[in-house]
Amino acid sequence: FSVTKNGFYYGSLETDYPSVSYLAYHLQALNIVPLFSVTKNVLPTYEAIVQLMKSTSAKTLELTSDSSNIVQLLREELARQIKEAPIVVLPQSGVDVQVDVDCPNAQFKVEDSFKICTGMAVGKLANYTVTLTARSCEALKATPNVTIRFSGFGDVVVSINPICSCPCESQQVANDTFCSQQGSNTCGLCSCNHGYASVDGGKFCGCDTTDTSCTDKGQVCSGRGSCQCGVCQCNTPSGAGTSNRRIYGNFCECDTFSCPKDGRGRVCGGKRCTLLACLQHSSIIQSLTDS
Questions:
Q1: Is 216 exposed, middle or buried (CB count within 10 Å of its CB: 0-12, 13-18, 19+)?
Q2: How many whole angstroms separate alpha carbon 46 and alpha carbon 53?
Q3: Three-state secondary structure call for residue 104
Q4: Interacting residues of 174 by C-beta distance below 8 A, sequence separation 6+
Q5: Residue from 249, 255, 204, 200 nearest 228 by CA
Q6: Cβ neighbours around 52 below 10 Å, total
Q7: How far apart are CA 45 and CA 57, in angstroms?
Q8: pLDDT in tens, the chain (291 residues)
Q9: What is the pTM of this model?
Q10: Within 10 Å of residue 101's Cβ, how many Cβ atoms?
Q11: Neighbouring residues of 107: CB distance < 8 A, sequence distance ≥ 6
Q12: What's residue 261's pLDDT?
């Protein structure tokens, strides 16, 4: 083979014919879809070549012995190209690419590296959502452009201009009032001091994590919740048959499922148990339900 130790092919300098991969590279760069119209006796050879040129959407078309069907073949292939909307994102280092396709009134398939809508009607639109995720900001700098190719239709080049740092990062304000004077403000984000935290709907760094207001009888939230800024956030019962169950109370000491049951398994003797659903009132409930 005419290949250097670095993998560079130089055979095209010695012969009249370039390699298949070299040809595929330039066809893809020019967005040309090659069609090989050949007779049956050489069809397997060209099908093998097509397998080496997947990135170009190359196709083989079988000619009759007298080539009289060449116009028909080209028309059918052109119609197929119109009805399909193949898309491929050229590989880029440092960037992960995800392509989602919505094919209204058409079918979706994956063929080689292409995602394709098949059976598209003329005038209908296919919707593509392309998500680019950088593995790192520095890696993104090395890949400023991402090419999205619609085979036979053209390219969409996405130019990326990453901002890997912000000037405000050097302007940190310690114990800023924005952070309840309990944290540092950097670019509008609070980094809370030890013992303080931010919670949804509350002030930034306004939560004292050492607050013992949630403790009753030596237990935090009765062991059935978590303490956030001195307020118990009760757990939600999970599992089968728990959709109507609820835990509540200042210390999560109440619920709707721990009322005493009679010998027939009825909660509160078949009566409603609402206000007195707390565990500490079970003796009162028992006296009421027995009456």
A1: middle
A2: 10
A3: coil
A4: 184
A5: 200
A6: 14
A7: 17
A8: 567 777 776 766 676 667 788 888 888 777 788 899 999 999 999 999 988 887 677 889 999 989 899 999 988 887 777 666 667 676 667 777 777 777 766 565 665 555 677 777 767 777 778 887 777 777 676 667 787 777 666 778 888 777 777 888 888 899 999 898 999 998 888 989 988 888 765 568 888 877 778 888 888 898 889 887 788 889 988 876 677 788 888 888 887 777 666 666 665 555 554 444 433 344 444 444 444
A9: 0.39
A10: 18
A11: 117, 118, 119
A12: 65
Long-range contacts of 115-118 (CB under 8 A, 24+ apart): 115/86, 115/87, 115/88, 116/84, 116/85, 116/86, 116/87, 117/84, 117/85, 118/83, 118/84
How far is 90 from 109, CA to CA, in rounded Å? 19
Q: What share of the chain is helix, strand, coil (3-state, %, to 5)?
A: 25, 30, 45
Give residues with Cβ within 8 angstroms of 68, minimum separation 6.
none
Identity of the residue numbered 69: N
Tell the residue number behind the tokens 């949804």, with chain if given: 200
Torsion on CA atoms 172, 175, 179, 180, rounded to nearest 10:
-170
Q: Tell me, what's the pLDDT at 55?
A: 67
Size of the chain, expressed as the number of residues it contains: 291
Q: At which residue do the structure tokens 């292939």 appear? A: 77
**pLDDT computed for residue 284 by the predictor:** 45
Residue 86: per-residue pLDDT: 66
Residue carrying the six token digits 């999205």: 148
Contacts of 77 (CB under 8 A, 6+ apart): 35, 59, 61
The H or E element containing residue 132 is strand 127-134
CA distance between the termini of the chain: 100
Nearest to 142 by CA among 91, 89, 95, 90: 95
Both tokens of residue 53? 């040129």
C-alpha 248/C-alpha 236 separation (Å) is 9
